[in-house]
Amino acid sequence: MPRIPLTWLGEHVALRPGTTAETLAADLVKVGLEEEEIHGAQVTGPLVVGRVLTEVGEPQKNGKTIHWCTVDVGPQHNEANPVDPAGPPSRGIICGAHNFGAGDLVVVALPGTTLPGGFHITARKTYGHVSDGMICSVRELGIGDDHTGILVLDDDVMARYGMDPAAVVPGADARTLLGLADEVLEINVTPDRGYCFSMRGVAREYSHSTGAEFTDPALPTAADLAPAPGGFAVEPADEAPIHGVPGCDRFVAQVVRGVDPTRPSPGWMQRRLTQAGMRPISLAVDVTNYVMLDLGQPLHAYDLASLVAPIVVRRAAPGETLTTLDDVTRRLDPEDLLITDSAGGHGSRILGLAGVMGGAETEVTAVTTDLLIEGAHFDPITVARTSRRHKLPSEAAKRFERGVDPQLQRVAVRRCAELITTYGGGQITDELTDVGSPVEQVTITLPLDLPERVVGVAYTADEVLGTLRALGCGLGEVRAEGGRDVVDATVPSWRPDLQMPVDLVEEVARLTGYDRIGSVLPTAPAGRGFTHAQRMRRRVADALADAGLVETLSYPFVGAAEMDALGWPAEDPRRRTVRLVNPLAETQPELRTAVLLTLGQTARRNVSRGQSDLAIFEVGLVTVADGAAAEAPTGGVYPGDDVVAKIRAAVPTQPRHVAGVLAGRREPAGWWGAGRPADHTDAIEAVRLVARTVGAAVEVRAADAMPWHPGRCAEVLVDGRVIGHAGELHPSVVGALDLPPRAVAFEVDLDALIDAAPDAPRQAVPVSTFPLAKEDLAFVVDASVTAAELTEAVRTGATTSVAGDVLEDLRLFDVYTGAQLGTGTKSLAFALRLRAADRTLTNDEIVAVRESAVAEAARRCGAVLRS
After folding, report:
1. Could you give the CA distance from residue 305 to residue 209 in angstroms, rounded to a whole number?
2. Which domains does the chain have, with CATH numbers?
3. Given this model, what pLDDT does residue 2 score?
4. Which of 410, 614, 721, 819 is surrounded by the fewest CB atoms within 10 Å?
5. Could you give phi then psi for residue 592, rounded to 5 degrees?
6. What mean pLDDT value characterizes the chain?
7. Which of helix, strand or coil describes residue 811?
8. Burial grade of 490 (CB within 10 A; 0-12, 13-18, 19 or more)
9. pLDDT over 90 at 629, yes or no
């Protein structure tokens, strides 16, 4: 995020007296620039200018010589002379540096000062003296890396840091002189406001917010608008633009000769770069970075002697590589836009990734004397894709991908060349190249009443026109069109985000103040609440949570490892997935076809963290690969209705499933007993709970499907169609997921359940006041007969007797196997509860229900009533 030093900003706009970082943040937030952080002064406390009065070298036993100094730090800070009580007031300070002497002006940190890095200065006794402060080096002040000696404020240093010699006197505030008292505001810039990645852009926004006078530092001079005389040859040669827009539509190159590479950047520039979060490196690099931060145009300086004309801007060829300035060799993509020269052939040597980062071969070094300064305008989409592809979020890329002013290149290159020659010597030659044709500025026809119609605030025509002028728009004459007053507004070159009338409406609302827009809630029309499916999904989640399961949420991305963990065979249709073009992780490039794929990993993670008793569920979408993938259109332009229709037709089906995993104890142990582990019946009951909640009738029968244990797996059917499974997980799956033994799981198609539920609302059933009749039946059946089959037979028989449908409840309450029954058989016992709504059941009716149930069980399942 951009960092804004107040003193730097004040060079472009008249800051109001008393402006602090906090008040600046309040002013900028009015125009949509939010505060991210306020960085306080680098140095706090009494940091002052001092004049060395005396300096005595004192050799030490360790061979080191220290200097015992008296320093005049101004009348407000001086104390009695520590060497000669009759001498001038001063402070006594120990210093180990040797590059100063009596009479020199230095920077003194008095007790109570805190230097960068949290270094607190106090008076302390050392080498036999009380050192009442510290004489500081550049490094100790945090304004450079030099720590070989202290900072002597001679004429060269004062000029480098932009100091007024008349103000550099003992006792003067050195924090102000060195810019160490500056507050810095860090702001958050939205992607459509790329021009605010510069002091120029932020100053303009401050002017919009406060009405302060703004001076645009990037206005072109007559020379900037004149045709370039020509210099180093440049050829834009993008033969494969990725969305119909050339990768480079303007390229400016200026030759500067005779620069002294040993000269450092001026101190004020280094200080500002540091405040803005960039590290000073060398004069050429610092100047290009400074101009970028100031105006918003990324620049690059090449060692002219290492270049071979012409420079060619082209797309990468398959297999090409580049070693960038960070010493990383990168394999290039055909979409990457490159800056190349002709060393070895026309456009054959790669100099850098356009708009992202330069290469190592032509960087400016300590022996460079002649420079080529590049300022270009690159396609935002091309730069954004290259930056992300190579994971290079450079400062230049951040600006190009948000849109750089296409009219800025000549001004920025000239400003860069002027600064380099001012501080590094040399001269700006007539060798200036300016090739390409920037995209023309957009003209928008705006009805003057559109802001009022869209925003609901009564903006006058003068307010709308005044706001557009302040924005930098060129305005035509107001004219009548279609019964409305309209105006043609040519948007400023630094606002590529303004493309249509509603964009200008937003600017009118923003610059006239969001506080003018009233908070009026619209009237909610009747019948617009949750849909039936939404209500059902919420009821299902509530029901499972009430049953003791915890709802979780997982990302729907999976890979082969998750499918292998569930034991799906290679030919399983559930392995046919939709693959993502740009996955978050290469190991999980596909969309899940079952919620258990990701819920199983959630269960594994919880168990690994000590949650051995587990009951979790998730309601989420799965993706069924049931169509051909559509070709991805080129970004940046509307692909056309036919392409959009194909894309929509290729969108895969995404039903919503509900799944759960239970492991460990379902009922905890305690003084009341040993508790109970979760088993397959808990998973089946969870499915029945979901079905009851949505009001759907389901059939449950034995099945064999991974990842469930054969013989302890049930399939769930609706209208004869399988919509899910429940039961105990297969031992191999339990092992693969590191779950407790005999963990259970379920998964069903929730959308299918909701669709199967009756549309009519449930009707309340009157509570019968007549007495309840109880009948218990125990059957002996073959071991292969399932409880579900026998239950359905008993239910059918009981409800079709001559007594009518008087079955109020049917429940399986016991399963028994043993030697008394014989091999291959089992006993199932049912509790029947009978009641009529209009009468007391007679004994004959109860017997009829019992006999009908027994007969149907015998007919369907070969059941024999247990004696």
Report:
1. 48
2. 3-35+189-211 (no CATH), 47-178 (2.40.50.140), 223-435 (3.50.40.10), 443-515 (3.30.56.10), 532-756 (3.30.930.10), 773-865 (3.30.70.380)
3. 86
4. 819
5. -65, 145
6. 91
7. strand
8. middle
9. no
- Residues near 726 by Cβ (< 8 Å), separated by ≥ 6? 680, 683, 684, 686, 687, 700, 708, 713, 714, 716, 744, 745, 746, 747, 748
d(CA 765, CA 196): 67
144-166 residue pLDDT tens: 777 678 999 998 888 878 788 99
Q: What is the pTM of this model?
A: 0.66
3-state SS assignment for residue 858:
helix
- Please tell me the distance from the alpha carbon of residue 104 to that of residue 88, in angstroms, as a whole number: 16
Residues 233 and 307 sit within 8 Å (Cβ to Cβ): no
Contact assessment for residue 130 and residue 92, using Cβ atoms and an 8 Å cutoff: yes
Exposure letters 199-213 (e unless 16+ CB within 10 A, then b)? bbbbbbbbbbbbebe
User: How far, in Å, CA of 523 to CA of 533, rounded?
Assistant: 24
Round to whole Å and give the CA distance between 636 and 380: 10
Separation in Å, CA 848 to CA 217, 503, 758, 839, 857: 101, 80, 32, 16, 14
Closest by Cα among 195, 218, 212 to 32 = 195
Which residue has 């100031």 as its token pair? Answer: 294
Per residue in 246-257, pLDDT tens? 899 999 999 999
* Residue 552: per-residue pLDDT: 97
- Give the separation between CA 57 and CA 467, rounded to whole angstroms: 68
What is the rounded distance in angstroms from the CA atom of residue 517 to the CA atom of residue 350? 53
How many helices, marked H, and strands, marked E, lie in the chain? 23, 42
**For residue 214, what are the β-bridge partners?**
13
Query: In this predicted model, what pLDDT tens digit does every residue of 685-733 receive, in sequence order?
Result: 999 999 999 999 998 988 999 999 998 999 999 998 999 999 999 999 9
Contact present, 458 and 452 (Cβ < 8 Å) = yes
What secondary structure letter does DSSP report for 750?
H
